[in-house]
Structure formats: structure tokens, C-alpha cells
């Protein structure tokens, strides 16, 4: 019987996932203030994002099997404590090095926690509630990414000490998350931990790489918004608005969440094609917003890019999952997530480097144009392959 205590544990774990992901993007609208304080360039901002991804990926690959072997709680309690340390470092950061260290710690925390928390949410769901658990985990993960910039922008704009108060709010909010993971039941038995390197079987590689590249492109747009959108908005408007900077990022991620949740029953692997087209339209609007100094166009770009990103990601994940044999699925999906996270952290470094040479607005315009062309090329190659693949496997 599914008791009230089980329901409380389920929602407590969902809250923990939401708060961990909220913390990772809390600093997004504040980087302009950090730039003024420490005097660093847009390249440094993109590198701060990149070190997060560089730490997250190995933590994700190592901690997933570890949580299966020794239990969710043994991994999640240290992960939440690490998140609190990273948040605390941001609150007292007195140098660029402290920002890098805080992001490294956050990457380790989220990498260790994301898979284990998703599994713990599934464990806490009723037997007939696995689909709901998956949707709740998705909403908490992506929703947290959008909530972070919005919360930080609001608190920093309305409260004193904008580089301190958002992180104090997050630290207090993490206390119930720590309680939630402490209450996870201990495993009945433990297994030997064996780190696994993700492998993609030969018969799934063509679909994997094309769907993976499409999601890589989609998340490169997410990385651009997370790293540079608040500063880009300040450049367009000529004034500092932490709320607007956070809201633009939150709008993109909210559109992605809405597309995935509302379209969960109708989005198919073939939906990657219209998703890539929506991404292209969003990128063109982004470039035009810089050309014409238009904030409304930027918000339209965030909305279109968010919808496109959500559709491409869910369609790609569905296709990769569908194409892999059951005993290889976990490895293939892990490899897919590696591509996704690389998309967040790597391409935006190029935009940051370019910004130091040609200016931020021109850099964003060039980045948007290149990724838009890549999206169209990817859609052109992926469309016939998906059609042929599904004709050969109509019952899959």
C-alpha cells in the first residue's frame, strides 16, 4: 500500500532535485556584476561554465553505478553537502578562482546526484506511477535550471547585497533537500562497484550520432543563453536589469519544459525535424535582436529556441532509447547525456573567445548563424534516415 509517508518521500526527493538544479544556474544573471568586480572577459564566463561540465560528466558516469552498488543515500547525502559548499563559496567569493572552484564543486554535486536522485524518485513512486515519476523528474531537472536565474535576478534586484543574498536563500532552501535524502531507506544488500564506460553498439551508431548531434546543437543554444544572455541583454538595453536577464533565461528553459511535458504523448523521434526548424527560427530571431537592438525579438528567440530544444531533446532521447537493446540501454543513454552536456559547455567557449575580438553582440550573431546552418544541415540528414529506420522497424 502506498502510504502518505511514501508520497512525502517522493515529493521530498523531487524537491531536492529541483533545488540542486536551481543552485547550478543561480549565478547566471550575476556574472555581469562579477565581471565588474573582478574585471574578467566573456571568455572567463564561458570557461566557468565549461569547468562545471568538465566535472559533471565524469561524476555522472562514476556515481550512477556507485549508487546502484552502495545505495542512493550513500551517494546523495555527500552530493547535497557538496552543493551547499559550492553555494557557500559563491556567497563569499573574493576572486575569480573562487568562482571556478565553486562551479567545479557544483559540477561534482549535480553529476553525482542527478542519476541517483532520478532513480530514487522512481523508487519512491507507486508501482503504477513510473511514467509520472519520469515526468516529475524531468520537470524538476529542467525547471530547476530555469528557476535559478529567475530567483537570483529577483532576489539580487530587490534585496541588498546582490552577490550574497541569492546564495543565502539557496542555502536555507537546501536544508529540507538534505533531510529528504537522509530519509532514503538503506539498501537491503550492496553490490561491488564497477565503473562503466558508456558504449554504443554498432547497429545503433548512425541513429545515435545524428540524434546526439541534434541534441548537442540544441543544448549549445542553452549554453549560450545561460552563459551570455544576461550580459547580452544589458548590452542591448544599455542598462543593468538582473530580473530581465534572469527572466530571459528562465523563459527559454520554461518553454523547453512546457514543450516536453505538454508534448510528451505526441513528440516522437521524427519530431526532431520540426524541433530543429524551431531552433533555427529562434537563432535567427536571436541574431536579428542584436542587429536591430530589439529586446522583444530576443524574448521571441528565447521562446522559439526553448520549444525547439525541448522537442529535439525529447525526440532524440526517445529514438536513442528505442534503438538500443534493453541490456545496452543504460550505457547508450549515458553516452547520449555526455553529448548533451558537452553541447552546454563546449561551443559557448568559442562565442566567448570571439566576443573579445569582435564584441559580444557580433559574437552572438555569428554563433547564432553558424548553429542555425548546422541545425538545418542536421535536419536534412536526419529526416531520411529516421524515415528509413522506422520503415525497417515498424513495430519497434
Work out the helicity level: over 70%
CATH superfamily of the largest domain: MFS general substrate transporter like domains
Could you state the order of secondary-structure elements as H and E?
A: HHHHHHHHHHHHHH
Count of domain modules: 2
CATH architecture of the largest domain: Up-down Bundle
Q: What would you call the structural class?
A: mainly alpha
Biggest beta sheet attributes? none
Return the average pLDDT rounded to an integer: 85
**What is the highest CATH level, the class of the largest domain?**
Mainly Alpha
Q: Tell me what portion of residues adopts beta-strand conformation.
A: under 5%
Terminal Cα separation, in Å? 34 Å
Outline type = globular
**Total helical elements:** 14
Your description of this structure?
This protein has 396 residues and is mainly α. It folds into 2 domains: 1-183, Growth Hormone, Chain: A, CATH 1.20.1250; 199-396, Growth Hormone, Chain: A (Up-down Bundle), CATH 1.20.1250. It has helices spanning 4-24, 31-38, 42-70, 72-92, 96-124, 130-158, 165-182, 205-237, 242-262, 272-291, 295-323, 329-345, 347-358, 360-392. It is globular and about 60 Å long. 53% of the residues are buried. The model has no long low-confidence stretch (mean pLDDT 85).
Amino acid at each position: 500500500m502506498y502510504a502518505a509517508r511514501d508520497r512525502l518521500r517522493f515529493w521530498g526527493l523531487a524537491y531536492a532535485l529541483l533545488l540542486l538544479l536551481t543552485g547550478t544556474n543561480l549565478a547566471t544573471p550575476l556574472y555581469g556584476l562579477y565581471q565588474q568586480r573582478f574585471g574578467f572577459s566573456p571568455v572567463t564566463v564561458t570557461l566557468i561554465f565549461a569547468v562545471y561540465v568538465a566535472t559533471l560528466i565524469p561524476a555522472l558516469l562514476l556515481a550512477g553505478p556507485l549508487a546502484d552498488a552502495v545505495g542512493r543515500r550513500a551517494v546523495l547525502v555527500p552530493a547535497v553537502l557538496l552543493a551547499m559548499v559550492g553555494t557557500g563559496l559563491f556567497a563569499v567569493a573574493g576572486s575569480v578562482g573562487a568562482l571556478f572552484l565553486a562551479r567545479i564543486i557544483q559540477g561534482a554535486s549535480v553529476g553525482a546526484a542527478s542519476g541517483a536522485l532520478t532513480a530514487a524518485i522512481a523508487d519512491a513512486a507507486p508501482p503504477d506511477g513510473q511514467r509520472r515519476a519520469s515526468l516529475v523528474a524531468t520537470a524538476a531537472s529542467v525547471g530547476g535550471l530555469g528557476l535559478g536565474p529567475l530567483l537570483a535576478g529577483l532576489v539580487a534586484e530587490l534585496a541588498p547585497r546582490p552577490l550574497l543574498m541569492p546564495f543565502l536563500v539557496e542555502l536555507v532552501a537546501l536544508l529540507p533537500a538534505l533531510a529528504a535524502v537522509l530519509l532514503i531507506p538503506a539498501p537491503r544488500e550492496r553490490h561491488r562497484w564497477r565503473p562503466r564506460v558508456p558504449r554504443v553498439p554498432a547497429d545503433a551508431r548512425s541513429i545515435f550520432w545524428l540524434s546526439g548531434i541534434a541534441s548537442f546543437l540544441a543544448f549549445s543554444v542553452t549554453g549560450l543563453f545561460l552563459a551570455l544572455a544576461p550580459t547580452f541583454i544589458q548590452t542591448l538595453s544599455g542598462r543593468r536589469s538582473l530580473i530581465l536577464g534572469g527572466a530571459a533565461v528562465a523563459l527559454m528553459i520554461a518553454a523547453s519544459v512546457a514543450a516536453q511535458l505538454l508534448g510528451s504523448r505526441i513528440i516522437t523521434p521524427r519530431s526532431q525535424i520540426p524541433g530543429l526548424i524551431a531552433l533555427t527560427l529562434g537563432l535567427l530571431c536571436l541574431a536579428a535582436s542584436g542587429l536591430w537592438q530589439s529586446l522583444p525579438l530576443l524574448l521571441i528567440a528565447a521562446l522559439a529556441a526553448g520549444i525547439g530544444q525541448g522537442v529535439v531533446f525529447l525526440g532524440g532521447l526517445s529514438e536513442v532509447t528505442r534503438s538500443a537493446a534493453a541490456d545496452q540501454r543504460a550505457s547508450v543513454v549515458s553516452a547520449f547525456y555526455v553529448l548533451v552536456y558537452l553541447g552546454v559547455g563546449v561551443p559557448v567557449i568559442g562565442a566567448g573567445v570571439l566576443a573579445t575580438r569582435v564584441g559580444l553582440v557580433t559574437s552572438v550573431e555569428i554563433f547564432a548563424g553558424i548553429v542555425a546552418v548546422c541545425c538545418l544541415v542536421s535536419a536534412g540528414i536526419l529526416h531520411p534516415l529516421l524515415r528509413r529506420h522506422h520503415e525497417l522497424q515498424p513495430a519497434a
